Amino acid sequence: MADTLLNGLNEEQIQAVTATEGYIRVIAGAGSGKTRALTHRFTYLVNELGIAASNILCVTFTNKAANEMKKRIRYMIGDNDTGFICTFHGFCVQVLKEEIHVLNYPKNFLIIDTEDVTAILHTIFEDMGLNSRNYTFSTITDMIAVRKEKEPYLAYILETNNDVLKEKFLTAESKEDAIFYRYLYEQKKCYALDFDDLINYVLYIFENHEEIKLKWQKKLEYVMVDEFQDVSPKQYMLSKLLSGYHHNLFIVGDPDQTIYSWRGANVEFILNFDKAFPTAKTIIMNKNYRSTPNIIQASNSLIEKNKRRIEKSLVPIKQADIPVIYNHMKTTQLEAEWIAAQIKKIQEGGISLKNIAILYRSHFVSRSFEEVFIKENIKYTIYSGIEFYKRKEIKDVLCYLRMILYSDDISFNRIVNIPKRNIGEKRMTFLKEYAGNHSCSLYQALQDNLEDNLFKKTNGKDFTALIEKYKQLYEEKKISEVLSDILNDSGYEALLRTDGEQERLDNLAELKQSIFDYENSAGEECTLADYLEKISLFTNLDQKENSDSVQMMTIHTAKGLEFPYVFVCGLNEGIFPSKHIDTSDKMEEERRLAYVAFTRAENTLFLSDAEGVNYDGSYRYPSRFIFNIEKTYINYMVELESRLASDARMYIQLNEQKMEQNSRCLAINDLVEHHVFGKGKILDINHDTSSYVIKFENMETTRNISFKIMLEYAGHEE
Ligand SMILES: Nc1ncnc2c1ncn2[C@@H]1O[C@H](COP(=O)(O)OP(=O)(O)OP(=O)(O)O)[C@@H](O)[C@H]1O
């Protein structure tokens, strides 16, 4: 039986599958069959060694990857119980559902996504009289994330009651403190956890409740983590902790594909795994099954230009002499037309459009292509834009469902006046004040004041009656029925019909269909709470694949995917690499991104760029990533004019020198500028925690700021 399972695997894959005990690191090059190794390993543990699936944790990068893996494993082990195959977030939610009661939180706590966070910030900004000239939501979200990473905020919010928390933000000395504590207050009020909290709460519970930690450690006899090159410090901590009893931790990743450093990923964890676990065994998988030889040679040639890496070269298994094509154009319009013409040629060869992908660095690049594709009648799907679950109508309706379960302020704020119930700004201000004074939710505030003159002429009563009605009956109905009924009873669907919002109605129909599918596939875990929890974890990376159309997406979205024909376009200085890249480290990450893009191609890789001027007035030279590839591996459709080529090389050389300067380590007494905290001076450097101790001009006390945060050098002062 083991033979059948191991059939079709190469030697390294067999090693990865059968080395089940201890700490194992697999450095797996692009297209070397990681997914195959992981699924077979899971199956081997279950079918050959008799390990229960429920004792195996297998962490993937996206929900989509988890679902894909579950499907394959289910097929191989012939059982529906696939244990814990999920993302870190998904796993944390499962732990919290079982354990969060020790923190006196309800089992059905609320998970809030980025849209909800923005909604909370809106309220805070409004109340504090702030606007985008003071701060942007994104800088504040970053500030909150950084503080949550660094400060023991959890101990603080758990031990502090709401009144004290309130006092804290009301009396805060700096605006940032006020916003931060107010945000924590708003969260605590409705037991809401944002994405960063999920892992922080789990770690907190494990650190403070030895018996719970031990329970999970014992349960998870085998821990596997995919895409380990992109784990954050907290994810690393969790992997280490969970495998702390059985000591079976299997990690797979490709350091050359680390593309999420900007989100906290740290490639050091995979690079130093053997130092952290001296007994660790390393397996290198470098046979590439995906791409034709020229694609591999070009990609190897590109990534070799990175200095900070483990040396490894992909070896192509496929045989075919298909060139990598590069074309340089005078305008983006011409670039798009050239790509459209290539697509038509591919199509004429009987290849369907879904086998073709257009990859780009940033969303804005897609516009010129779309225009040409529409003109040329080429069907395409863009994997971006506003994510399905964040579209207005979808979010509105989900907030109605959330009101039934949680009656939280975020949902209340969003839908109490949609459709119009005459509860406008004045009445909302009253409710907020009342809720603040009585330490209750806005919904409770409305319920308490329905008889007040201020609310007599509103439809507040209908609203609370509606929510109360569904609170009574939702458990007896299917989620799809609750949804249809509440859309009808609330007048929401009628509102869209009156406004002639066909696209929004179509989206609602799609939502109903997806709930219907969920009910048919979810088995026992099919309650409204389960459903809301599941979709709250959806991200842009989990979108549905579409019919026969060209697939257009950013390279980050394309991670882990493969397509027979790949176009990487907009390969220009200022676009890719992006003009925001200002240090050598970031440039190495940008090069890894190009490497991820190139290695998505199975059959043919097309590279292109177009001349022009960037927004900041800089010239769009052909990208250094083109020059990084040995010319023998690419077929230039036109030779670059020698003047253009030499100007481009000169520009790139100067730019690299500038980045080297920017990358120089900051020293004690250097003056710096932080994007949120402003001007400050470095007082100390803490290499243990990889951070600078900085005294900011606007703050009483010092802050430890991670090396990862970009600080502008602003001089030196002894
Ligand atoms: N032993 C093998 N024999 C033949 N084909 C294989 C083998 N292993 C993997 N493949 C094929 O190689 C391709 C790449 O595999 P997979 O998607 O698992 O790569 P990966 O390592 O996850 O890639 P990446 O990190 O670039 O996303 C797939 O089409 C897979 O079917």
From TrEMBL:
<dbReference type="Pfam" id="PF00580">
    <property type="entry name" value="UvrD-helicase"/>
</dbReference>
<dbReference type="InterPro" id="IPR014016">
    <property type="entry name" value="UvrD-like_ATP-bd"/>
</dbReference>
<dbReference type="InterPro" id="IPR014017">
    <property type="entry name" value="DNA_helicase_UvrD-like_C"/>
</dbReference>
<comment type="similarity">
    <text>Belongs to the helicase family. UvrD subfamily.</text>
</comment>
<dbReference type="GO" id="GO:0016787">
    <property type="term" value="F:hydrolase activity"/>
</dbReference>
<keyword id="KW-0238">DNA-binding</keyword>
<keyword id="KW-0347">Helicase</keyword>
<protein>
    <recommendedName>
        <fullName>DNA 3'-5' helicase</fullName>
        <ecNumber>5.6.2.4</ecNumber>
    </recommendedName>
</protein>
<dbReference type="GO" id="GO:0005829">
    <property type="term" value="C:cytosol"/>
</dbReference>
<dbReference type="GO" id="GO:0005524">
    <property type="term" value="F:ATP binding"/>
</dbReference>
<dbReference type="InterPro" id="IPR000212">
    <property type="entry name" value="DNA_helicase_UvrD/REP"/>
</dbReference>
<dbReference type="GO" id="GO:0043138">
    <property type="term" value="F:3'-5' DNA helicase activity"/>
</dbReference>
<keyword id="KW-0413">Isomerase</keyword>
<dbReference type="GO" id="GO:0003677">
    <property type="term" value="F:DNA binding"/>
</dbReference>
<keyword id="KW-0547">Nucleotide-binding</keyword>
<dbReference type="GO" id="GO:0033202">
    <property type="term" value="C:DNA helicase complex"/>
</dbReference>
<dbReference type="GO" id="GO:0000725">
    <property type="term" value="P:recombinational repair"/>
</dbReference>
<keyword id="KW-0378">Hydrolase</keyword>
<keyword id="KW-0067">ATP-binding</keyword>
<feature type="domain" description="UvrD-like helicase C-terminal">
    <location>
        <begin position="293"/>
        <end position="560"/>
    </location>
</feature>
<dbReference type="InterPro" id="IPR013986">
    <property type="entry name" value="DExx_box_DNA_helicase_dom_sf"/>
</dbReference>
<feature type="domain" description="UvrD-like helicase ATP-binding">
    <location>
        <begin position="7"/>
        <end position="292"/>
    </location>
</feature>
<dbReference type="Pfam" id="PF13361">
    <property type="entry name" value="UvrD_C"/>
</dbReference>
<dbReference type="InterPro" id="IPR027417">
    <property type="entry name" value="P-loop_NTPase"/>
</dbReference>
<feature type="binding site">
    <location>
        <begin position="28"/>
        <end position="35"/>
    </location>
    <ligand>
        <name>ATP</name>
    </ligand>
</feature>
